[in-house]
Fold Glutaminase.
Amino acid sequence: MKVPVDDYLQQVLGECAGDEGEVADYIPELAAADPDRLAVALCVADGTVYAAGDADVRFSIQSISKPFVYALALADRGQEAVLDRVGVEPSGDAFNEISLEEDTGRPRNPMINVGAITTHALVGGDECSEQDRCEQVRAGLSAFAGRELSVDEAVFASEMETADRNLALAHLVRSHDIIAGNAHETVRGYVRQCALLVDVRDLAVMAMTLAAAGRNPLTGEQVVPEAVCRQVLSVMATCGMYDAAGDWLTNVGIPAKSGVAGGIIGALPGQVGIGTFSPRLDRFGNSARGVNVCERLSNDMGLHLMSAPPLAVAAVRESGTVEYEGQTWLHAELQGPIRFAAGESVLRALAQLEPGPEPLALDLSRVTSVDDVGRRMLLEGIRRLTLDGHDVVLVDPRDVLPDPDAGDGIRPQVRTSSPYADA
Amino acid sequence: MKVPVDDYLQQVLGECAGDEGEVADYIPELAAADPDRLAVALCVADGTVYAAGDADVRFSIQSISKPFVYALALADRGQEAVLDRVGVEPSGDAFNEISLEEDTGRPRNPMINVGAITTHALVGGDECSEQDRCEQVRAGLSAFAGRELSVDEAVFASEMETADRNLALAHLVRSHDIIAGNAHETVRGYVRQCALLVDVRDLAVMAMTLAAAGRNPLTGEQVVPEAVCRQVLSVMATCGMYDAAGDWLTNVGIPAKSGVAGGIIGALPGQVGIGTFSPRLDRFGNSARGVNVCERLSNDMGLHLMSAPPLAVAAVRESGTVEYEGQTWLHAELQGPIRFAAGESVLRALAQLEPGPEPLALDLSRVTSVDDVGRRMLLEGIRRLTLDGHDVVLVDPRDVLPDPDAGDGIRPQVRTSSPYADA
Amino acid sequence: MKVPVDDYLQQVLGECAGDEGEVADYIPELAAADPDRLAVALCVADGTVYAAGDADVRFSIQSISKPFVYALALADRGQEAVLDRVGVEPSGDAFNEISLEEDTGRPRNPMINVGAITTHALVGGDECSEQDRCEQVRAGLSAFAGRELSVDEAVFASEMETADRNLALAHLVRSHDIIAGNAHETVRGYVRQCALLVDVRDLAVMAMTLAAAGRNPLTGEQVVPEAVCRQVLSVMATCGMYDAAGDWLTNVGIPAKSGVAGGIIGALPGQVGIGTFSPRLDRFGNSARGVNVCERLSNDMGLHLMSAPPLAVAAVRESGTVEYEGQTWLHAELQGPIRFAAGESVLRALAQLEPGPEPLALDLSRVTSVDDVGRRMLLEGIRRLTLDGHDVVLVDPRDVLPDPDAGDGIRPQVRTSSPYADA
Amino acid sequence: MKVPVDDYLQQVLGECAGDEGEVADYIPELAAADPDRLAVALCVADGTVYAAGDADVRFSIQSISKPFVYALALADRGQEAVLDRVGVEPSGDAFNEISLEEDTGRPRNPMINVGAITTHALVGGDECSEQDRCEQVRAGLSAFAGRELSVDEAVFASEMETADRNLALAHLVRSHDIIAGNAHETVRGYVRQCALLVDVRDLAVMAMTLAAAGRNPLTGEQVVPEAVCRQVLSVMATCGMYDAAGDWLTNVGIPAKSGVAGGIIGALPGQVGIGTFSPRLDRFGNSARGVNVCERLSNDMGLHLMSAPPLAVAAVRESGTVEYEGQTWLHAELQGPIRFAAGESVLRALAQLEPGPEPLALDLSRVTSVDDVGRRMLLEGIRRLTLDGHDVVLVDPRDVLPDPDAGDGIRPQVRTSSPYADA
């Protein structure tokens, strides 16, 4: 059989091919774009990329660079230092608005131009040269994409000719001591950043890297820390699509960002990265058909932040006692992923056990994953059971709970198979 | 052992017991609240409730009623009719601000008073009497809580004495033809709604009902449809905590709502419902210690919308061929929950199989759950494999994929155990 | 000859009879107005009224009542008490906007509805009954008009049916403790005030009363104090014509106020009161043709606040010495009106005189008027000259400087003709 | 005697010498100003200047240059062309705010920096070099002051070091195609303009030039046309004192403008020009003591736009018939200034005359001035009387009504004395 995802994407493109909206025309390079181009790509957790339509067409990344450069700045400077200079509140404004906080002069968020210019200036530190900063940005975005990106010099040159508004914004944040460097150099760097060339596959991989807690699913590189991705995705959720945060969040429910050349990315944590491309823009400046595609994907595939996962079957698959070679074993077999909710139900089940000398076999062989909180919960359970008198034996053939140090000097024995065979 | 969640909650309360903020004092009943009260409750998917602190103290629900009455209005009137009258955009304003859209007069969102008054008026239809609407609201919130709630008549009477602002808001939306009924009766009903008495356990259950796609985890009642919950949670994410949507979403990442009596709810889809209580309010009007407790819970337990679940182990646990009684079986054993991402990887694995006459055993016995999208993906795979010539046999002992109709008249055989035993 | 002002007004109406704009239609009584009605009246300082067009048609005064009721409130309560409750800043908003100051809840100015409702409530004091306040307002506006005005009960009843917005505004200011009484009664009183019937002659006289420092030019009654008129005219200058204070002030330069029934008043201090009527309204809610008429009058007749009066000829017509019956007289003959500027030039001329025993004849027979400042300046000059040794004789046949007490016990002799005849 | 104005000003300074406010400190040159300096000057219509306090201290003109450069731009480009680029609406904002109209990008008014930068760029046309424009501005302001002004180069250099905000504003208006030239050159020119050195006498003369319809009272030069002054004064009335237009207009009632170095000008049409200086600024950025001085002058001297001139005595001093040498003359003697109101009363009196062959002597020898409207009214009266059969003889010894062409070929005979002597 053929994987039906390809067919599905093809079908979505067919159904979203309306002709509303207008191609951006403030520079010749954007005005010359073929308005009928349409492409989509999905990247899933293991790096598989599905694509349909004009997936080979490259276009300038424009404002879609903003969340990634924000991520680089957060990784470089730390959350606090960046928050001192750029806020995280939706402004309800268009992309090029001057939205500064009244008292501090901080740009309201990093997704509007004034915030993105500030964010660009934060990469690499105040002493960084323009050239070094540009290279760091290019290299950083390339790491997100998993291939070396390059600048479209014609787009860059053309944008610099109509850069007055961005120059105004740069001087403005400089007047508030939000950025330190030369305003013109900063704008030049920012405009280069926006002129990086990408296609929808790149966008899907970049988005999936954010959705995968910072690890590029193609290269395996940890591009930025997990906490950075959480911050970036949160800001995309409320500030990414301009002017109508609530509308996007209720209808689509995927953290997203659009660019004036017609691209959009969507990133649903842990699940999928999306890239779309279609040059016609709606009145908010978002790709009109790209928005439709995202809505379709969200609705068809249940890809919405607020979609409750279906209630899992019990994380504790079986528990009870087993007689084996004259020994009574307490037995608990867990299954599925262990995060907070599953951890809680495991602990609750373990709490039913009476204190006593019987050994306990805690079988993790059907557990698919354990996150940090699940890990701490399991270890705390192991600690308490040990203090209750039980010897705990972990059955963990795939090492889903490595280094099981429960504190107080307590470490369970670890085995790759059950101590009582298939008794 | 004792379940460590109780100890943990106790510890969190101890660490969040600062004394910043002031008790609301615009009516005597709120001013008389003991400022040192502090309580927290968690409700998990199966309805288990953990609580600590002053969990038995009841207080008026106040603005926390807003998301639930919004849910009732959505369920009664449908999303479109409600959107015609109340928007979903964050206003960046305080709770009692007049935030109407300029052209339409629509309140900006249902979490500010003017939107909540409108929402209240929508429950039960335009012809509904004041008394009937109040009873519908009381009964609806009781269904969310899983017990019969009642009004604090002293709070109600006192609030009516200082209701000028709410009366202004009601007349205002009436002047825009947003609500139809008598302004004074509408405000009276809204004030009764806000005077319903709850404790933190109620709040945790109510929040978990939203987080569990509308099904009350205690009573099993489907209080409102899943789509309604998605809408309500989305709006809570951006409009619930007043004035600083971005700050809350980045730092805490849990859709939430606060009330002036000191309560807060948090609802993380599929995972947990939280209720906190502490009467001292910060400058935004949110419970100061309640906010701290929510931040602690989010940070400690990884409870954040943007926390990517750890990358699951392959959804396809094993695949290959099995020789059994002279027959070559194709064999694929799935595991964990099957939503979009897992479904995609399953389809990709199945696409490796060559067309041919061999039967395929698709073993779901380690699958913990299948959502609607996962279900459609599995059925599409089954359909294509059948068209490729394979007979598909589903091994589904716990009925995780009921009624497996793949379309085109194709239905796989379903068994509760493997066709080839443990060959 | 016929006074050409009538012909001129007729000509202006002929040239301003365009048909742009729409009649207000939110109540049947206004919607039924004949859209082609057009009238203008001018009232000059001595009470002469010129009128042209449909000058006998009566219409409801609507918002034109606002400056006059503001004047009544100022006269009743004093400037400070009124300023505590209503500001004087232009809001840049439409007439029915909610423009309250953020911290205090004060309406921004008395020309928008929320400020006018507040102003109405201030007339007669907090203890005044609704009926008494309405009668005070009716009587006060009648005193401005110089005839007894009465309410159009059909307009009143109809407006009360769509009073939700005004009720909202009244509850709102009540919620800020800006007004004390019952919100519904206040709105009822305010709506009665707006339903008083007037014609353009009434409006011209009312405006001239403001322009004449509060003295009705027909009846001679001092309706309100001069300081009140200065305050009211200042507020009309910036807040009277909604949405475009600067445009009106630069183009027309006459303090003005419009009403939704089609009336406009203009009041140029000391010079003229204007009333116009034409029911079609422009997009700001001002009478479209009325605005044109005002522009014409301003441009044609130099009626603009910022028109510098032409430089007067010297206030000192002649000065020198006169020999008469063996006595050398110092002689100074003044002319024209004596305000600050003329007073200054007189004092400067007098300062040329050497100290000495010669008597001084200060001849005021050609002086047309002396204001308070001019009076103080002349008296100070007389005082100083007397101290220099001169006996000052005032020649003041028309008593333009009554009671010439110069302080320090100094009073010049006053005569009705020159002490030295026409020597 | 000594002119008491000097004593009065001295007294005002003594009573306004509080120490509230802070000296501007964003550049060293301003921070170094002696905070206790205090000066005031008045200039009256004939160019006499009174001064008190530190009247010889020079300081940079700063924002007080704005109305004068606005006047130069209006004179150069015409009102329409300037209005296309800079509005006239109060912004309610601080001096350095970004107040652009939403759709057009026009600065809201020429008194805020963004509007003043635009205004500067309009002087001399788009092709004008930076150097030429600076010289035109310097020369123009010198013409207002009646002496050659020069730039404080230290202030200029220092301001350029912190010019980021102004650079932002210049790039911003350039991005809206409001200005054409190079943004940096424009800011440099604007900063030079602000660094011109003046003292309070200069300010008083500059203000009086505006108040005297554009004619410098010292030099007699017509610096800009009268219509320009009307526009500039109107804008100063609502936009000159930042943040509180209504407060200033009601309390002081004098069109004014302040500068950050501590200067203030006030200009009351036809009456007086005021200059004050005191470096301590209030929270709006206006000189704290300067504001107090202006309030005192306004209140003490009745200098308020809305102060109605006292009702003049009849413009027609005497009328009747005179028998002289067998001829019956109609006789009318006018007095005082003839503007609209006086003209109206003259026409009304003349309208009492029956048609007939008697000659009419219209005696203007006591008339102090005739403005354009008064002139047109008198000539229309003469025309109508002539058509009624009367021969009109003008007695106009001081030529207050030159070139008395009444249209239709009608010109009255003009004499310098009465045709019937002193009969």
Q: What stands out?
A: Chain A is about 40% helix and 15% strand. Chain A touches chain D at residues 98, 162, 164-165, 167-172, 174-175, 183 (CB under 8 Å). Chain A has a mean pLDDT of 90. The CA atoms of residues 312 and 336 of chain A lie 8 Å apart.
